[in-house]
Amino acid sequence: MYYTQLGNSGLSVSKYALGSIPFTGTNGFENAGGMSQDMTDHMIDYALDQGINQFDIANLYSKGDSEIALGKAIRDKRHQMVISSKTGFQLTDNPNDGGAGRVNIERSIDESLQRLNTDYIDLYYTHLWDGQTPVEETIQVMNDLIQKGKIRYWGVSNYSGWSLAKTHTLAVANHMAPPIAQQIYYTPESREAEYELLPAGKELGVGNSIWSPLGEGLLTGKINRQQAGEPGTRQGDGWAEPYVKDTALFYDLIDTLQEIATQHQVSVAQVTLAWLRDRPNVDSLVLAARTKAQLQDNIASYHLQLTSNEIKTITELTTPEPIYPLWHRAMNAYDKASDSEKTYLEGYNRLMERKDTLL
Does residue 228 have a pLDDT over 80? Predict the structure, then answer.
């Protein structure tokens, strides 16, 4: 397993992380999980044996029950584990029980530490952008938690490019610890993160960690033109996410992934993860498996090597539409682009060249 230092920090993390949404499956997460404690323990042990040291969770998942399950699974392995958790989603009717303000963050961290049965969390995320709370307040409370030893580092999740830049810039300008990582949604079907978030993370020294790289169950191969989601799963029980902007393109992508998977005699999930693993500016992928077989299959993708033509086929099929000012930069300022954005500008240029031939 490959390890990297996450963002501009000394925290070494594995390329793959194990997510915890399936651990319990209670309090609204019934169709996302429901495994026993013994199974959770097995998942942790197997991940560690495969070289995975990242374990990701949030107080949102089963409203704390997933944190309890992970806390029990830690046992004597805490020193081997890099644990991340998150807060920010509104969990009760209390207006202060959510967001990125001091009241919620200070209460949430203490509750998470108790549920996880640990003295500290390695990486603590704000789970979403809170435009009602001053950014300075969020930065200050996260730095206070670092000073108190309750967290080692902090990060953000589901931010826009400008809100990430604003948060990082204000922290540095005020001589405070900035976020070292962002957790974002990015798949071969949904590549909007390439517009700003992925290059911004690289430029700012913020690690890019990808949540739900299999599209919350969409990109496992179990959903195709002939087959809908299975009952008892997120995509089979009316789970609202993710948003699919182009259904026809989605099914074309599934066909392509299945064809490549057949050539390698592997699953569609493995092909998806192998493509994402080597994408520019991607630091880690957060896996979330419900069974032993799924976890083994997902981790096996680490050793799958796609051919350059296979990578090109997937990449060119779903290259995002160039939006302003990106099409303008691709046309007129490519030579001025930083390395973190050039790879995407190349794709926009190729797309525009293909469309030019049709006009």
Answer: no
